[in-house]
Design a protein that fits this description.
heterodimer, A: about 260 residues, 10 helices, globular, B: Rossmann fold, Rossmann fold, seven-stranded mixed β-sheet, five-stranded mixed β-sheet
C-alpha cells in the first residue's frame, strides 16, 4: 500500500504550476456556470499582469452581464451607461494618453444601443482596445433577441425564431469595424477550448501591445456561449456555438496591421 | 495680473474663459444658438497652448459620456449645447450626478418643446433645477445675465463642481449667448496637475483601485447613497445661494427674474418707479440652490411678487414655495423665443396688482 500524501504536503512554492492571476480579485464571479465571460476576464487580467500594466490600465464596462466587472479586476475602473463605453474610453485616452484604456462590451451594448459610439470611436481611430463578447443574445435581462441573434434563433423576444423579414439580419460588427480607416487590428476568437483560449490570449496581448504604437482602435471579438440564455447545458451550448455561430461569425483575423 | 478687455459674444466668452480657466477637455456637438463655442475652441486650438483637448463628438449623447469619462479621471471637463441637445444629454447627466463627478454643462436655451425655435427662451428651468434625467438628484445651476458672467461663471462652476463633486449647469439663453458685450477676461490659469484621490488614473500599488459607478443593486445601500446626496444638496442650499437685489429696500412690489429676463426687469423697475410704483428686482444667480430664504424675507415686506420668465411659468413655482402664501405671486412671460419688453412687464405688474 502506498502512503497517502495529504494535500497540504503538496502545497509548496516549487510545486506551483498554475495560479489565479494577481489582477483577479477574490470576489466570486456572478456569471452562470459554463459561461465564457469568466475565461475572457481571466485572459485580460493575465495579459495586464504579465505586461506589468496594473498601474496603467483603466477599464470601462457598460450595462450588461459584465456590469459588475469592476468587482473582479483589481485595476481602476469606470462603469458606463448602456452602449456608451467607447465614448467614455475616448475621453479617458485623450486626457490620459499614456494609460492603457479598454472597454469590455456585449453584443446588445456594442451592436445595438451603442452602435454609433462604437463606429465613431473606431472611425476616429481612438487608441483603445475593445473586447466584444458576442453571444447572440441579451444575457443579463434574460435572453432577449440581440442584433447578433442568428436567423431562426429563438429568444424571449423572438419566441418563434428570428424572422429576418421583420426582425432584421444579424449584424457583423467586427466586419464592419474592420472596413473603417481608424481600426488597426480586428480579430474574432473564442474561449471554448484550450486551444482557442491560447489564441484569444495571444490576440488580446497583440491588441494591448498595439495600443503603445498609437495606430488606432483594436477590437477583439470573442464569440461566446450563453447556456442560460440559450437554454442549454454548457457542453450543449459550446457544440451549438460551433455548429451555428461559427459559420455565421467565422473565427480569425479580420484586419491585421500592414507591415 | 491685469484683466484683458474684449468685445465678445457670450458663447465666445465661455470658450475663451474655458481655455483660461485651465479646462482639460471640451466635448461638444453643434447646435444653434451655441455653436460658436466649439467653433471658437477649434479655431483657438488650445491643444497647442494649454494642452486642452477639444473634440467634436458624433452626438450629444457621446459628448456627455466623454464628459463622464474625463471627469472620472479627475479632469476639468465640460460640454455645451442648447435645449434639444441638453435633453439628449440627460441620461449622461444623471449618471454623472449618480457617480458624483464634477463637470460643467452649459445650456444656451432656445424655445421648445421639440425642435421649437432657435430664439432665446427660459423654458428649461424645470429640467435644469429639478434634476432633468431619472432619479433623485440636483445640479448646481448658475444663471448668467451678461457676457461677463458667462465668462466668470466658467471658473466658478469648476470651483463648485470640484468642491461638492457635483455637476454644474450654466443656464444661459440664446440672447446672452449671441449678444456682444465688453468682457474682462481673467488671466490664464495653469491646468491642474493634482489628481483627486477618487479619480481613475491607473492604480498605483500605494492605493486600492478606484471605481466610478452609479450602480448599487442593494436597496439599503442605495438608500444610504441617496441620503448622502440629500445631505450634500442641503449643504449646497446652506452655503451656495447667490442672488442680486436691485432697489429692493423700499420696494412694494418685487419682480423675480434671472438671465435675460432680469436685464429686462431692471429697466421695468426704473419705468415703474417713474410712474410712482415702488418696484424692486431680485435676480437669482443660483437657480439651484434657489434664494428661498431671502424671497421669504422679502415676502414680509412687499405687497406681491411677479415672476418674469421667458416661459409658460416655471420658476414661479419656486417663488410660490418660497413665499409660502404670505403675499400674492403671479407669473408673466413670453414664449416661443420672444423676449419680454420692459413696458410689457410694467403693464402686467399694474394689471395684476394695482388694477387698470
Amino acid at each position: 500500500m502506498t502512503q497517502y500524501t495529504g494535500i497540504k504536503e503538496i502545497i509548496k512554492p516549487e510545486n506551483l504550476v498554475y495560479k489565479k492571476t494577481d489582477i483577479m480579485t477574490e470576489n466570486t464571479l456572478s456569471y452562470c456556470p459554463g459561461c465564457g465571460h469568466g475565461t475572457a476576464h481571466r485572459l485580460i487580467a493575465e495579459v495586464i499582469s504579465e505586461e506589468g500594466l496594473q498601474s496603467e490600465a483603466i477599464g470601462v464596462s457598460p450595462v450588461g452581464c459584465s456590469v459588475f466587472m469592476y468587482n473582479y479586476l483589481n485595476i481602476d475602473w469606470q462603469e458606463a451607461a448602456h452602449g456608451r463605453a467607447p465614448a467614455v474610453a475616448t475621453a479617458i485616452k485623450r486626457l490620459l494618453p499614456e494609460k492603457f484604456v479598454f472597454t469590455y462590451q456585449g453584443d446588445g451594448d456594442l451592436a445595438a444601443i451603442g452602435t454609433a459610439e462604437t463606429i465613431h470611436a473606431c472611425n476616429r481611430g481612438e487608441n483603445i482596445m475593445i473586447i466584444f463578447i458576442n453571444n447572440g443574445i441579451y444575457g443579463m435581462t434574460g435572453g432577449q433577441m440581440a442584433p447578433t441573434t442568428l436567423p431562426g434563433m429563438k429568444s424571449s423576444t423572438s419566441p418563434y425564431g428570428r424572422d429576418v423579414k421583420t426582425m432584421g439580419n444579424p449584424l457583423k460588427m467586427a466586419d464592419l469595424v474592420a472596413t473603417l480607416q481608424g481600426s488597426y487590428y480586428v480579430t474574432r476568437q473564442s474561449v471554448h477550448t484550450a486551444a482557442n483560449v491560447k489564441k484569444t490570449k495571444k490576440a488580446i496581448r497583440k491588441a494591448v501591445l498595439y495600443q503603445k504604437l498609437n495606430k488606432g482602435t483594436c477590437m477583439v471579438e470573442i464569440v461566446s456561449n450563453c447556456p442560460s440564455g440559450w437554454k442549454m447545458t454548457p457542453v450543449q451550448s459550446n457544440k451549438w456555438m460551433e455548429e451555428n455561430m461559427f459559420p455565421y461569425y467565422p473565427l480569425g483575423d479580420l484586419k491585421t496591421p500592414k507591415e | 495680473m491685469e484683466k484683458e478687455l474684449r468685445l465678445m459674444k457670450g458663447n465666445e466668452a465661455v470658450a475663451e474663459a474655458a481655455i483660461r480657466a485651465g479646462v482639460d477637455g471640451y466635448f461638444g456637438y453643434p447646435i444653434t444658438p451655441q455653436t460658436e463655442i466649439i467653433e471658437y475652441l477649434m479655431e483657438a486650438n488650445p491643444a497647442e497652448t494649454t494642452g486642452m483637448v477639444v473634440l467634436q463628438a458624433e452626438s450629444e449623447v457621446a459628448a456627455i459620456n466623454m464628459v463622464y469619462g474625463g471627469a472620472a479621471c479627475g479632469k476639468k471637463v465640460m460640454t455645451t449645447s442648447s435645449s434639444p441637445g441638453i435633453s439628449l444629454k440627460q441620461e449622461g447627466i444623471s449618471y454623472i450626478a449618480g457617480a458624483e463627478l464634477p463637470c460643467l454643462i452649459v445650456n444656451v436655451v432656445r424655445g421648445g418643446p421639440g425642435l421649437g425655435t432657435i430664439q432665446p427662451a427660459q423654458s428649461d428651468y424645470f429640467q435644469s433645477t429639478k434634476g432633468g434625467g431619472h432619479g433623485d438628484y440636483h445640479l448646481i445651476v448658475l444663471a448668467p445675465a451678461s457676457v461677463q458672467e458667462m465668462a466668470d461663471f466658467v471658473d466658478l462652476s469648476f470651483e463648485l463642481a470640484f468642491k461638492y463633486r457635483n455637476p454644474v449647469l450654466m443656464l444661459s439663453d440664446g440672447a446672452i449667448g449671441q449678444m456682444m458685450e465688453k468682457v474682462y477676461l481673467s488671466p490664464f490659469k495653469e491646468r491642474s496637475k493634482t489628481v483627486p484621490e477618487w479619480a481613475t488614473s491607473g492604480k498605483p500599488s500605494t492605493r486600492e483601485r478606484n471605481i466610478i459607478t452609479s450602480l448599487d443593486l442593494d436597496p439599503n445601500r442605495q438608500e444610504v447613497f441617496n441620503r448622502k446626496l440629500l445631505a450634500k444638496y442641503d449643504e449646497i442650499r446652506k452655503k451656495e445661494v447667490r442672488y442680486e437685489e436691485f432697489l429692493c429696500e423700499d420696494a412694494e412690489y418685487l419682480l423675480v427674474a434671472y438671465g435675460t429676463s432680469a436685464r429686462v426687469c431692471q429697466k421695468s423697475v426704473q419705468l415703474a418707479r417713474e410712474q410712482g410704483i415702488k418696484a424692486g428686482l431680485l435676480r437669482p444667480i443660483t437657480l439651484f440652490p434657489f434664494p428661498t430664504k431671502r424671497i421669504n424675507e422679502l415676502a414680509g415686506k412687499v405687497k406681491g411678487m411677479l415672476s418674469v420668465e421667458m416661459s409658460a411659468g416655471q420658476m414661479v413655482e419656486d417663488v410660490l414655495l418660497s413665499v409660502n402664501g404670505k403675499v400674492p405671486v403671479y407669473h408673466f412671460g413670453r414664449m416661443g423665443g420672444i423676449v419680454t419688453t420692459p413696458e410689457e412687464v410694467v403693464e402686467n405688474l399694474k394689471s395684476k396688482f394695482i388694477g387698470g
